[in-house]
TrEMBL record:
GO terms for biological process: butyrate metabolic process. One of its GO terms (molecular function) is hydroxybutyrate-dimer hydrolase activity. Pfam families: 3HBOH. It comes from Paraburkholderia fynbosensis. It comes from the Bacteria. The lineage of its organism: Bacteria, Pseudomonadati, Pseudomonadota, Betaproteobacteria, Burkholderiales. Its EC number is 3.1.1.22. This is D-(-)-3-hydroxybutyrate oligomer hydrolase.
Length: 141
């Protein structure tokens, strides 16, 4: 409730297009509160994925296939990043927006996913970094 993770390394991954658990009412405010609570000692990394929503099972449905990318792909990346962090001390990438590319095409017959659609979580996000200051979460477009 107070967003105090007591210095525990944590990763949050959420799709920007999540209509079930809206990002403005879940991950973003939690990230902002954590930054107020723990400040520079926080070990929270927040990855916001564009064109991703809550139900990957719907990606085979016509219309979903052309507009959305699988969020589970990033959940697996996050788990591997955390494993590497805990096992080898590899730093977790900073909070960031991951700009994906929808497949497009014809609803029900979208082209296959490729690396173009699903860029990796960046070690250095540059202009895609998510930051917080004074309780406000700053998001790149």
């Amino acid at each position: 409730m107070n967003a105090n993770l007591h210095g525990k390394p944590t990763i949050m991954v959420q799709g920007r297009a999540d209509a079930l658990v809206q990002i403005n009412h879940a991950s973003r405010p939690y990230f902002g509160m954590n930054q107020l609570t723990e400040g520079g000692a926080s070990k929270l990394s927040f990855y916001e994925v564009t064109n991703a929503q809550h139900f990957d099972a719907f990606l085979s449905v016509a219309g979903f296939d052309t507009r959305f990318v699988p969020l589970h792909y990033y959940n697996l990346q996050a788990l591997n990043l955390m494993w590497s962090h805990l096992k080898s001390g590899t730093p977790l990438p900073p909070s960031q927006v991951i700009n994906t590319v929808p497949r497009g095409g014809v609803a029900g017959a979208a082209p296959p996913l490729s690396a173009v659609n699903l860029p990796a979580i960046a070690v250095s996000p540059g202009s895609n970094a998510i930051t917080a200051a004074g309780g406000a979460v700053n998001l790149p477009n």
